[in-house]
Structures are given as C-alpha cells and as structure tokens.
Amino acid sequence: MVRLQLVILATIGAVRAAPTTAEPSTPAGLPLPVSTVYSFPKGSFVENLAVRSNGEILVTRTTSAELVLLDPQRPGCAVPVYNFTKAGLSGMTGITEYAPDVFAVLAGDYHFGKSVGVGSWTLFSLDMRGVKLSQAACGLAGGNLPRVRKVALVKESQLLNGLAAHGKYVLASDTFAGLIYRVDMSTGDYSVAINATYLSKLKTPHGVNGIRIVGDTLYAANSGQSILVKVPITENGAEAGPYTVIAHNKGPVDHWDDFAVDSEGGIWAVTASGNTLVRITPDGNTQTVVAGNLNSTAIAEGSSAQFGRGSCDSNVLYVTTVGGLLGPINGTVVIPGALVSVDTEKRGAVGIY
Ligand SMILES: *[C@@H]1O[C@H](CO)[C@@H](O)[C@H](O)[C@H]1NC(C)=O
Ligand SMILES: *[C@@H]1O[C@H](CO)[C@@H](O)[C@H](O)[C@H]1NC(C)=O
Ligand SMILES: *[C@@H]1O[C@H](CO)[C@@H](O)[C@H](O)[C@H]1NC(C)=O
Ligand SMILES: *[C@@H]1O[C@H](CO)[C@@H](O)[C@H](O)[C@H]1NC(C)=O
Questions:
Q1: In 161-198, which positions are buried (b, 16+ CB within 10 angstroms) versus exposed (e)?
Q2: Where are the domains of the chain?
Q3: How much of the chain, in percent, has pLDDT values that exceed 70?
Q4: Is the pTM above the cut of 0.90?
Q5: Residues of the signal sequence (predicted)?
Q6: Is it true that domain 34-350 has CATH number 2.120.10.30?
Q7: 192 lines ligand 2 (CB under 6 A)
C-alpha cells in the first residue's frame, strides 16, 4: 500500500494521546510463527508480491524500479530481473499473474515522501516463462531474462496500486482517485470499470487499495474508509450487484491494505500501521489478530500477502512489509522492509494468484 506519510503520522499522534484500553486475550496457538525470508536495504518500501507456480516470488518496491526474484527456500538470495528505470520510471506497486507465468506489473514515477507519480502509471506485461533462479549461484539460470512489453500508460491515473486478473482484463485500483480501471492486456485499451462510493476516498486521501477476484466476486480494501468490501462483477469488471461490507478496521491506526483469500474463503489482511496480520472469517463476523501487534516488528507495517504455491509451502502466507517507514513502530523504530513468511498451519490457498 502506498500512503501519505504526514497523514499517518498525524493519526498516530492522535492515537498515542488517547487512553489505552485493555488488551484482548490471545487465543491458543497464536500468534502464528513469523520468519524473515529476505530483508531489503534500509529505506526500502516493499510493496507487493506475486508467487510463481514454481514457488519463486516476485517482489516490488515503491522505492525502486527494480523487480526482484526470490526463492523462499533460499533465504539471502534476491536477484533483480528487470529495471524499469529503462522506461523512465522510479517505483513499482501491484503485480499479478494474468496468464500462466506471465505477470501484469505496475511502474510509475513515484518518489517516496515527495510525489506519487500522477499521470505516469504504466502497466507492463512480464513473461517469466523460461526464467528461473540458478541452482548453482545466486543469479538467473542461463542468464535468461523476462520478456517485457508495455501494455498501457494510464494517463488519467493518480496512483495505480492493486492488480487482479479477470479474463482478458487486468483490473487496477487507483488509490488516490478511488476507482478501478480495466485494462485489456492484449490491446492496451483501458477505461474506468468501477467508480463507486465504497471505493472512493470520501474525506480521506486514500480509497481502494488491494483488490482480489475469486470467481465473479471482487474483494476490495478501502484504506481511507477502513473497510473491506465485496461485490459481484461482470465479465468486464463492472459491478453486478450490491456491495457487502465484510470488515471494518478495529485498531485506531489500522488501515486495510492488500490481502489473501484462503481455501475456506477467509481473508488474511495486513493492517499497515497497525503492524498486524488479521484473519477474517468468510462471514466477516470474526476478526482475529494472528500475527504482530501494534508495538511489534514481527509484521512491521504489512503491505501485501499471498499464499505459497508449492507442496511444502501452500499453508505459508508470504507478507511484504514496509518496516515502519510511514509510521515508525512506537513512533521511532524503523526496520528494513522485508518479505516474511507466516506459517498458517492448515488454511492453504484458494488458488487465486
Ligand atoms: C537501474 O537502471 C538505472 C538507470 O539505468 C541505474 O541507475 C540503476 O543503478 C539500475 N539499477 C541496478 C541495480 O542496476
Ligand atoms: C467518479 O464518480 C464521481 C462521483 O460521481 C465523479 O465526480 C467522477 O468524475 C467520476 N470519475 C470518473 C473518472 O469517472
Ligand atoms: C514498543 O514499546 C513497547 C511498550 O513499551 C515495548 O514492549 C516494545 O518492545 C516496543 N517495541 C519496539 C519495536 O521497540
Ligand atoms: C503498546 O505500547 C503502549 C505503550 O507504549 C501500551 O500502552 C499498549 O498497551 C501496547 N499495545 C500492545 C498491543 O502491546
């Protein structure tokens, strides 16, 4: 998720002044174990991830135009696979697989703390077929690089952020405009797919952030409104029915960001400055903090989450973290942005990537 630093700091200031409330008791088996897969250099705003069918993980940062490939089985090795600086862009946000091992990825002229790249956000196609990490060394096998194609510059966009594949389209959330675009991946034609109050910013700087599609249902996190919603959509990604609000943020500095949907239809969502990972039951009635807490660096400002896809890690949730760059933990602690893994024990993935 990409947010305005000042707003978050202001929110935290207000919260720190408020009286504290009793801590909820922790259910048995929680928190779930968290391990660091890879820590990026300090100051990295690690933003999003996509898990490949071979188990490797592509990671984006808003603070870098380099897309990085990692293998969670090989901690410590991270290999740049493409540098969008070539396209004149400086940061990256969403990434999603739209055809087998072919990914849609967003890059824009983002400068942390200065500008969000209004009018620059560009959707690229990144064909990873034949590209993998070498077993022998920390590099790409055979030196094979992905084939990258510019699909569309969305000139009207303010801050394109989350992506979800939907038939011939990829849907892209515009967090600062508070709406969702559809982009035809073969022609590059794009238009607004959904512009609705539930996605909008209302009086906050941020609207719709993470989006996922399961079947004909679009799930969307609205960071500004602190709600997670779902809505049925048509083949064209337009809304086809009423919205259901699944969950409201509970913590005072919590803001939903990206999330993953598990095999039961439960949602695993990070809460950004809340520094937690929350599981929401499919009916939305119960929210449980499963890892992290406000004062902890375990889930240090989570930005996105995806389940593993291998036989040994399908119950592992991979989470990207910003490290407290936007909202330092306890007001002062900033750690390097990272990819961490959370052992969910049994929930597994629903098969959307
Ligand atoms: C990406 O490209 C830019 C411009 O060509 C360069 O300055 C930067 O160092 C590159 N990044 C890496 C790690 O190669
Ligand atoms: C979205 O809807 C709002 C409110 O109806 C309207 O003001 C705005 O122009 C719309 N934006 C686009 C890009 O369609
Ligand atoms: C934040 O403060 C709390 C309470 O003083 C403390 O328990 C916790 O360890 C601190 N967290 C960090 C990351 O320093
Ligand atoms: C976080 O630390 C503050 C004091 O800095 C304390 O009042 C609060 O209870 C702590 N919260 C958690 C979830 O540990």
A1: bbbbbbeebbbbbbbbbbbbbbbbbeeeebeebbebeb
A2: 34-350
A3: 90
A4: yes
A5: 1-17
A6: yes
A7: yes
